[in-house]
Amino acid sequence: LYVHVDVDVVDPEDMPAVNYPAPGGPSLETVAAAVAALASTGRVVAFSVSSWNPALPGSEVAAAATRRLASPFLR
User: Mean pLDDT per 10-residue run, the chain (75 residues)?
Assistant: First the structure.
């Protein structure tokens, strides 16, 4: 499996620093649970994440959220 997460989909309350926010999108908790479930299969060969914009307000919150999403794949 190749897992790609475009963080624009996460609700802006949890992921504020994106170019195309999705009000009403899934929570960070929901997306993190889905990513963790995929990681637990042992079948993921690559993971990518995109669309966090560190130049926007709230980038510290978004950075922490992005690290959380990537954490199941970091050893």
Answer: 96 96 97 98 96 94 96 89
Q: Is the pTM of this model over 0.90?
A: yes
d(CA 15, CA 45): 26
Cβ contacts of residue 12 below 8 Å, gap of 6+?
18, 21, 22, 23, 25
Handedness of CA 59, 29, 10, 1 (dihedral sign): positive
Closest CA relative to residue 5, chosen from 37, 24, 23, 13: 37
30 to 10, 13, 20, 54, 75: CA distances (angstroms): 9, 13, 19, 23, 22
* Structural domain that includes position 7: 2-73
Q: DSSP letter at 5?
A: E
- Give how many domains the chain has, as a whole number: 1
